[in-house]
Amino acid sequence: MVARSSRPKQPRYSAGRGRRPSKVRRGTPTGPARARKRSPLPLLIIGGIIIALVFCWIFGRGCGGNKEAEENDKLRQYAVNANKIISRSATAGAQFDGVRTGIADLSRDDTSTKLSQVIADSESIAKDAAKMEVPPKAEDIHPVLEMSLDLRVDGVKAFKKSILDVQDDKSTEQTPQELSDSMMELVVSDGAMNRYREQLKKKLDAANLGFDSVADSTFVPKADDALLSQVSAYMKAIAGEQTGDELHGVAVTGIVTTPARIDSTQSGLAILEDEGSFTVKVTVQNQGNQTEEDIPVVATLDFDPEGAQQKETQKIIRLKPNESSTLIFEDLKPQVGNDKVNILKVVAGPVDKEVKTDNNSMELKFIVRARE
């Protein structure tokens, strides 16, 4: 047997998979990092805000300036509308006072008709006031105006019921108190109206608006007339009785123009709008306790800077104690133009033996604005 020759076994080494040659890594560049590019949008926004603020400051003195101006303009328009409402109520008040003080010469039907008209007018005025557009700056005071106007409706209604009982000879022991209560309600309405006028004036002043005063309106010029003692004397006067020591005196208690005042200048001049005609209603009251006769009432119209004086004279034939009479002057012709000041002065009396004369006259300065 042939022996196989053997070679010593050599260790076998597996080559396996050879390593791939590694790529040479590029070295990281040294030095400061390159800055990223920023979007220009934030800068544009900031710039826009700055421009808006500058625009607001220049044209509105702050972004809230324009809003404040708008609110002031709404307040001004509200005041104009309120003046119209109050002027209408003032006319109704003059009519009521004329009936109340002159009732001795009125028939029962005349009294009823005249007071019904005052009630209807007052109700219409109250409804219009409730519909007014009220700006934020007047929201806290407008309810006072509405309350005053509502009280006037209720007061005149109660007065009408009681005074008709007097004229119908149906008055009872309670009638003087009922009359006093009805008139006191009107006195309260006058107080509320004055409160409203004062508060509105303060708001207008705070807003630097050109209103010198807010229109006035009263239903009972002398609050003491509502006292029970005065009402009792009033009822006696209706019957023709005279009370107390002899007292003579008349007073101008109201002037109402047509066209009516629509605004006022900063200096206090009333502003009327030209309507092609001009009338003046003057109310004169006998504030004494004696009947007066042939009372002269003179209306004079002067002008500033110049113009021929105009004068119109009328007479009140007879005026009983506490009675009022309304005269209408139609021959006076005011000048038209913002630079022409009309000065209207009305003088009643004085009557014989009159001592107190400081209330015998009333004056009104106004301009008549031409229609646009």
How would you explain this protein's 3D organization?
The chain folds into 2 domains: 51-241, no CATH class; 247-372, Immunoglobulin-like (Sandwich). It is 40% helix and 19% strand. It has helices spanning 41-60, 65-101, 108-130, 142-167, 175-206, 228-238, and strands at residues 250-258, 261-264, 270-273, 279-286, 292-304, 310-319, 324-329, 341-348, 361-369. The strands form 2 sheets. Strands 2-3-9-8-5-6 form a 6-stranded mixed sheet. The protein starts with 40 loop residues before the first helix and ends with a strand.
How would you sum up the major sheet? 6 strands, mixed
Low-confidence stretches: 1-19, 60-64
Mean pLDDT: 84
Order of helices and strands: HHHHHHEEEEEEEEE
How many independent structural domains? 2
Number of strands: 9
Helix content: 40-55%
Task: Please name the defining characteristics of this protein.
Immunoglobulin-like; 19% strand; 372 residues; three-stranded antiparallel beta sheet; 6 helices; six-stranded mixed beta sheet; alpha+beta; globular; 2 domains
Topology record:
Layout: H1 41-60, H2 65-101, H3 108-130, H4 142-167, H5 175-206, H6 228-238, E1 250-258, E2 261-264, E3 270-273, E4 279-286, E5 292-304, E6 310-319, E7 324-329, E8 341-348, E9 361-369
Parallel strand pairs: 3-9
Antiparallel strand pairs: 1-4, 2-3, 4-7, 5-6, 5-8, 8-9
Helix pairs in contact: 2-3, 3-4, 4-5, 5-6
Quick structural overview:
It is built from six helices and nine strands, in the order H-H-H-H-H-H-E-E-E-E-E-E-E-E-E.
